[in-house]
Amino acid sequence: MLPTENRLRRRQDFATAVKRGRRAGRPLLVVHLHRGGEPSGPTVPNSDSRPHVAEGIPSARAGFVVSKAVGPAVVRNLVKRRLRHLVRERLSGLPAGSLIVVRALPAAADAPYLDLEHDLDAALRRLLRAEPTGSAPTGAGR
């Protein structure tokens, strides 16, 4: 499991990552990344509004979407466990305060662990090298 401070739980956080973040699609999954440092909505000085913030340094947080299109509950839970394990190993490489949502596609149900790992790494590489301003990356830097 992911530590509590690294979990996306609120609907608003999922929506922020999906709507304001960048997206990278792969054959097995789609990754949405909203980099930290950008406001995600109105700030409330209440300590319950941001339980993931420890001593002023927000950690990267992850959430997962595995719909019924992926398969029955046993398959969905297996895919979710695999993705959770993969993301947990990569959270330290994400900018502080980042929100990441990993959405499994139906092909993920039959995919081996290494294929999920390859697609996740490729999506994260693409998102992390992209400009945080939302501009499309150009091919000049290759």
From TrEMBL:
RNaseP catalyzes the removal of the 5'-leader sequence from pre-tRNA to produce the mature 5'-terminus. It can also cleave other RNA substrates such as 4.5S RNA. The protein component plays an auxiliary but essential role in vivo by binding to the 5'-leader sequence and broadening the substrate specificity of the ribozyme. Residues 35-55 are annotated as: Disordered. It is an enzyme of class 3 (hydrolase). HAMAP family: RNase_P (MF_00227). InterPro entries: Ribosomal_Su5_D2-typ_SF (IPR020568), Ribsml_uS5_D2-typ_fold_subgr (IPR014721), RNase_P (IPR000100), RNase_P_CS (IPR020539). Keywords: Endonuclease, Hydrolase, Nuclease, RNA-binding, tRNA processing. PROSITE patterns: RIBONUCLEASE_P. Its EC number is 3.1.26.5. Consists of a catalytic RNA component (M1 or rnpB) and a protein subunit. This is Ribonuclease P protein component. It catalyses: Endonucleolytic cleavage of RNA, removing 5'-extranucleotides from tRNA precursor. Signal peptide: none annotated. It holds the Pfam family Ribonuclease_P. Belongs to the RnpA family.
